[in-house]
Amino acid sequence: MAIRIDLDARLHERRMTLTELSERVGITIANLSVLKTGKAKAVRFSTLNALCRELGCQPGELLLYEEEDEE
Questions:
Q1: Burial status of residue 6 (CB atoms within 10 A of its CB: 0-12, 13-18, 19 or more)
Q2: Across the strands, what pairs with 4?
Q3: In the chain, what percentage of residues exceed pLDDT 90?
Q4: How many domains does the chain have?
Q5: Is 60 exposed, middle or buried (0-12, 13-18, 19+ CB in 10 A)?
Q6: Is residue 35 part of a domain?
Q7: Which of 24-36 are b and which e, b meaning 16 or more Cβ less than 10 Å from the residue's Cβ?
Q8: pLDDT over threshold 60, residue 1
Q9: CA-CA distances (angstroms) from residue 13 to 2, 7, 8, 10?
Q10: Rounded-to-integer distance, Cα 17 and Cα 13, Å
Q11: Which of 29, 37, 49, 55 is deepest in the core (most CB within 10 A)?
Q12: Band of the pLDDT at 71, cuts 50, 70, 90?
C-alpha cells in the first residue's frame, strides 16, 4: 500500500497510548490497530477529523505516501 497512516509518531509525540486515543475518539482499539499497522484500505473523513482533533495535528502529518516496490 502506497499511503499509510503514521499513528506511532503522533502517539509518541503526545505521550498517548492507543487505548487513550481510542477512548478520546470513540473508535475501537481493533480499528485503530488496523490503521496503525497499515492494513486499512480506507479511512473516513470523520475518523481522520477525530484523530487530528485529539492528536493536535493536520491530516498531512498522519498520511504518508511511500513508493510501492514493483516486483
A1: middle
A2: 64
A3: 72
A4: 1
A5: exposed
A6: yes
A7: ebebeeeebebbb
A8: no
A9: 24, 10, 9, 5
A10: 11
A11: 55
A12: low
